[in-house]
Hints:
The structure holds two protein chains of two kinds. Chain A is an alpha+beta fold.
Amino acid sequence: xxxxxxxxxxxxxxxxxxxxxxxxxxLRRKGAIQIDVNVFFNEEANExxxxxxxxxARRPLIVVKDGRSLLTExxxxxxxxxxxxxxxxxxxxxxxxxxxxxxxxxxxAFNDIEITVEHTHLEVSPGVITGVTTxxxxxxxxxxxxxxxxxSKNQKQALGFYAANYHLRLDMDANxxxxxxxxxxxxxxHDVIDYSEHPSGQNMVVAIMCYDGYNMEDGVILNxxxxxxxxxxxxxxxxxxxxxxxYSGGLIDEISVxxxxxxxxxxxxxxxxxxxxxxxxxxxxVDEGDVIIGRTSPPRFLSSMDEYNLSAATRRESxxxxxxxxxxxxxxxxxxxxxxxxxxxxxRLREERIPEIGDKFTSRxxxxxxTGxxxxxxDIPFSAxxxxxxxxFTPHGIPSRMTISHLxxxxxxxVGALSGRYIDGTLFQSEYEKDLRKELQERGFREDGTEVFxxxxxxxxxxxxxxxxxxxxxxxxxxxxNKMQSxxxxxxxxxxxxxxxxxxxxxxxxxxEMEKDTFxxxxxxLLLKERFDSDxxxxxxxxxxxxxxxxxxxxxxxxxxxLYGENSEMSEVEMSYAFKLLLDEIRSMGIYVKxxxxxxx
Amino acid sequence: xxxxxxxxxxxxxEILPPYILGQIDQYLPSSSTKVQVEKVLSKVxxxxxxxxxxxxxxxxxxxxxxIGEPGTQMTLNTFHLAGVAEVQVTTGLPRIIEIFDAxxxxxxxxxxxxxxxxxxxxxxxxxxxxxxKSTLFGEFAKEYSLDIFDQKLQVLLNxxxxxxxxxxxxxxxxxxxLKSKGFVIVVEDDRIIFEHKGKPEEIKxxxxxxxxxxxxxxxxxxxxxxxxxxxxGEKYLVLTxxxxxxxxxxxxxxxxxxxxxxxxxxxxxxxxxxxARQIIINEVFKVIESQGLNVDLRHIMLVADIMCxxxxxxxxxxxxxVSEKASVLARASFETPVKHIINAALEGEVDYLTSVxxxxxxxQPVPLGTGLPGLITKxx
Lengths: 601, 380
């Protein structure tokens, strides 16, 4: 006796739960009931749950009966011949979809070798335990799980050919790799997802060696000549948009070249890229500060009285200019309307990004690194056969991270390049390392993948043989060009008079609380004072009242005491503006802060 | 040890601390000549002088950084070993915070009780442990039954438990006599019956009695909830959960010189501020060591000194050490600035800007390191 629930509603009781459940399964496999019905017998609660509703994650499995997979050689032949399709297998009951509940009642074999009489199902492929991006890591079963995760994350950040219609799209921060290639070492999933339609890396010649320490601590060395030939080159697209906003009273922004009498008019020089419609002309080379879209806005706070006041009716300049660090070529101009029916102008900037020091590269095994130097081809070590690596990876990245798949891919791609075929690195189903090594040897190379190398600068043979081969390397979207900033002087905040924060505002790097502590710990008090001088002010203080005075311009800027007027000695005191603000705030609480002045020397 | 060495060394008693002189005394070969001894001493003085902290060295901040930085690496989870008898202890960051804040009630109060050599055996320790563990009346009771008609409360006792603790029902009855005034107590083999003395009152009274006597301590010391006899080296000792240092030290079996508690305030009230300071140092060091971190003991000693310098214990909180700072601005920059500024205004406090934080605030050189020296001659 067991209760039966249909989509969590009780529908009745059955005498023999086990036969009931197996009957339902048989009917489903025969096609008598829908294939998306799942049944689950909860032995502990003595309940049978039948689910037919939507929203259950289900996965396909091959049915196993009496220790034998229902998928036979005949099926495979028919599949290859195109006589059978996937859905035919499902309809025949060879493959079925299980939900999380029904999975609890089944014993699933990982591969056909381990099937026993007790097994009920077989995985379609042992590789399906990973998701799509993770399965793109070749030889994934030779990699630590943490690295595997890292490798799959890195691939999502890789530059590639993300959409064939990229030239018509206005994606925020889009990147296109110039000559994307198919990986020499592929997995079966690459074919399934049509990776060749949107590849995102290039096959580089990689040597694993040190070279003057420019690749230490996860650095990579790039071949400058390869870069000049177009290796890893990409284009960066960045859209900028402006709309004509509507304000109360029928007033509206206007996109045009601003008139000279507009409030806040820059200079003719600044509007030099604008065409008569107020928008940059395509292919204009613009730099930071240049106006891209000219715009004027109606005056702010226009009251009814001001409508008759001509001087107040001047419009404001509100053009869009490039922020600090932005530059490029106007690539595409689009004139359109937004949801509210306002006129919308979008300009897409294009910028060619040639790999430089600080750009990030990675293999597919979580072995990311930052370019340390670009070396001209003539100075890079070369092999006996004259092969020059495109990228030099550090051997110190290997032992602690144990990324064996990284090393296998290098040999695999080398074999692939020599034999002109793609190497299969599918998870748990990859080609054997042993076979790859054998094939490498047959091609006339050392079986262990190493080659004799010569220093490009001296021509001397290197003491060790270098592990060299091909690898699929990805350029990641983190580029120095987007991140680098420095400042000596620049904009400050209005309230605190301290430097602004953040790259877009040309900000400074804050010397924070803990950094301050390190200065004190070293006893460098005068250096600390200098570092905190960024908001230094000189304020006249009344010696009698101890209050902050002001300069009276009517009396040639004479300092005046707020309490005693001219009848007090005023001294100029240097302090940080933030402290002056603190004094103001304390005074606003009704507390009289008196500064007792004393000569320091 | 030659007499003449002793004489030379004694001449230096003003310059070098006794401990160092003692060390020299101990390791000096007796064959060494007078010149050699003096050479050794001058070298030691040189080393001693260079080891001294320079004026203007900000030892407090260096200590703070030296304890604070490893603190960021401390893990919050404690490790447990399955099957090993252990007392649950607060460690890691929570314990450090507990100590430095000088919290009055700590999460896991503990004692390490050493016994005198005459009691250093398995049986003696077991017996002692059972003796000090506080056992409540409720633990002996198997069943309570309220007789509504006769206004009686009957307590059925757990005989085996009584036997384990070598206590008779009569002893039990005696121990709760004080708490059950107004009731007649009748002891029958394995049960105790309470009967109202005067006229029958409300049943509530009997019910209250039941709740009251349940929590009466029958034997042991107050507060000691768990005991664990352990062997450390050749010595047997008793670890306890819950502390009662004062009463434990009164017991004749206890080795008074080594028995400690981890409750700083308890140690302070029983043994005084110097002992409390040592407990702070030991407890912090224990935590840092257990996390596999390496902090110089002197940093911890400095913090402990600051906490105990006033003769009582002050935590590193706005109520403790920070409230004693001379500068208004320094106190305001720590926590609750408005409160400090308003109170300073009410009292008309003057900030002489003599310390570090104030000077950072107004951006003046801090009186430390290169900012410390000034001109002796005043120009005005």
